[in-house]
Design goal:
The chain is mainly α. It has one domain. 75% of the residues lie in helices and 6% in strands. It has a 3-stranded mixed sheet. A hairpin with a 4-residue loop joins strand 2 and strand 3. The longest helix is centred in the last third of the chain and has 38 residues. It is elongated. InterPro entries: Zn_peptidase_2. It comes from Aciduricibacillus chroicocephali. This is Zinc metallopeptidase. Keywords: Membrane, Transmembrane, Transmembrane helix. It holds the Pfam family Zn_peptidase_2.
């Protein structure tokens, strides 16, 4: 019974942690998307100003559908901002736009963790798509090597999640520095901007934590099957 209770707590944690992080970022975004920034610049204008100030004239800015679908595409050298952030002149829009430009600056400066994350993408995709299948097949069929290959793939996917953390935190730090140095936000707006960036960072922390917990669970299952 204790074992069943432990599994229930474990699976509850796997569901609650991401939901909690998503709730935090959505609440922060909802609140500060209603607060205008003092510079009255839209997210697109914020992104363009910071890019130009850093000599990244070749990086384009595009509008993309969806909410919080903002991202930087290193292959196309494009900062893509969701509709509300592209056109909005809110605290949330300026924070998120600056964060995505932070990734563009990382790319231009060959930021080591960003390069490492890009290198991990192929094997991380394999891990996400096939790790569970290989592990379960290996454990059920008692094929130790097959299960071990699955765990290695899952480990690569977890490593990708962990490497993502310094990439995202660094982009947020760059965003704050750029927003302040360019005068896009005032000193009195720094606290609110950090709240938006910190809430967004929680989603990556939650994803990494869940990934590590899953890896540990399967490693323990693998070790337990070998003991049997």
């Amino acid at each position: 019974m204790g074992s069943i209770g432990g599994y229930l707590v474990y699976f509850a944690a796997l569901m609650i942690i991401p939901l909690w992080a998503q709730s935090k970022v959505k609440n922060a975004y909802r609140k500060y998307s209603q607060v205008a920034n003092s510079s009255d610049l839209t997210g697109a204008q914020v992104a363009r100003k910071i890019l130009d100030d850093n000599g990244l004239y070749d990086v384009a800015i595009e509008e993309v559908q969806g909410q919080l679908s903002d991202h930087y595409d290193p292959r196309s050298k494009v900062v893509r901002l969701s509709t509300d952030n592209y056109h909005g002149a809110s605290m949330a829009a300026s924070a998120i736009a600056a964060h995505e430009v932070g990734h563009a600056i990382q790319d231009a400066q060959d930021y080591a963790f960003l390069r490492f994350r890009h290198a991990l993408v192929p094997v991380a995709n394999l891990g996400s798509n096939f790790a569970y299948l290989l592990i379960f097949a290996g454990l059920i069929l008692q094929l130790t090597q097959l299960a071990l290959v699955g765990i290695v793939f899952m480990g690569a996917a977890v490593l990708f999640q962990l490497v993502t953390l310094p990439v995202e935190f660094d982009a947020s730090n760059r965003a704050m520095a750029q927003l302040v140095s360019t005068g896009i936000i005032r000193n009195s707006e720094e606290r609110e901007t950090k709240k938006v960036l910190n809430a967004a960072a929680l989603t990556y922390v939650a994803a990494a934590l869940v990934a590590v917990l899953e890896l540990v669970r399967f490693v323990l299952m693998f070790l337990g099957s070998n003991d049997d």
